[in-house]
Amino acid sequence: MSVRWPRCLTPTYLSQIIRDQKNPLRALQLFTEAKSRYATYRHNGPVYATMIDILGTAGKLADMKELINQMKEDSCECKDSVFNSAIKTYAKAGLLDEAISLFKSIPQFNCVNWTESFNTLLQIMVNEEKFETAYHLYLMNANKWEVKTSIRSLNVLIDALCRRSRSDLALSIFQDMNTQCCYPDRETYRILMRGLCEDGRLNEATHLLYNMFWRISKKGSGEDVVIYRTLLEALCDKGMVEEALEILGKISRKALKAPKNRYRNLGLSQGLESEDVEKIKALINEFLVRGGVPSLASYSAMATDLYSEGKIEDGNRVFNELIERGFRPLVSTYDGKMVALCRERKVDAAANLIDKEMIDANCVPTVRTFNILLKGLYDEGKSMSAIKYFNKMYNQMGCVPNKATYDIMVDGLCAEGHFVEACQIFEKMLVRRHWPSDAAFNKLIGGLCASGKRYEAVIWLEEMISQGKIPDVSLWSLLLSSMCSNSAEAGACLNAVHKLTES
What cellular-component terms does GO give this entry (predicted)? Predict the structure, then answer.
């Protein structure tokens, strides 16, 4: 693509120029060329951020690292988002050591706040089960003025400890929050309550609930019911049904503000007499959503929590009551239900949510909703149905497929051998300026060769090379052997390959 340089270049204009390049190496060339063309021009932080993001997305990690070092030498003011993006790129490529090294070098840059990078790296370490390294990272950086200790980073650390069955240490961090000028939020209580209950520390969990009453629940929120449910069901599972009912009474008075007669009329005493723990748990869940003032938040939180545990029938009961009460279900609740149905391989029921239930509820599916369904359909080998819903999504106002959507479609179609349809998705992907990965190109071109679509394979090979991507060596041999099997098309294909090799 030819570039028309302006009389006076600004970093904003250069950012637009390099974004328009589909070949990241061409974009880097223009980025470098700008300084030699304009004597007074200097790169700033945003244009560096744009170029670094382009190289990281394209997998050009060596060039990205070199450019980050160049940004350090220029000493231009840069934002935390640059390092945050680069750390994610290194982690995705499996280069955690590079990500840690970059984070440690941030003080050498002209950046005054790296809180987001800290939180991102901490989360990555937890996901990689590098718990001790994550803990040391926290200790080394928590008190630095450039890192604003937030409840998010503490929640990550508490979650990591709970995963290792060290809820005792997680509890000590919770108790020391005041010294960090941090205050627990609902997510803190949810994580810690689950960790304590899974470790059998029900006494501490009960005290945590009482602490929650005056810090969180007094403000009133229906979403709190899932935290109460965690403790109450853990008590029931341990045979401590009477204690669970006693605590439920306190929840009723202090958190749900439920009328006394509503608690008495629930019929919990009958369940206690029958010693049916599952019945007691069902009645408790019922009371948690009905006991106080019924709200969309309480019904949605309970239904989503049940769906996440795979309890579809229980979730449906809460979901149906939500609708009967006159509430409009949230899209996130439908998403939770769809994930549960796809996990149980009930993709037809999941598709019915978009086809009928969401329409009846006047609820518009989002990109995430469609992505969940598309993934479920491909997992069940229903690629033609997936194409139908992709087209429906593509034509829906305000629902633009994202990079994840196209990746799901391409991977699914290639896995089932529908390479012609995958080519059509590739074309739409390029129109939206979402660049396919090297693996996606290799998979598509290899499939086209194997299925006898030699000319199309060469066309997409040309597109791949024009984007600065390097085909697998095996792809060349596959393409040549495919051409040799058909002499009629060999001439045209060889000419195209000859042009590619010259370029």
Answer: mitochondrion
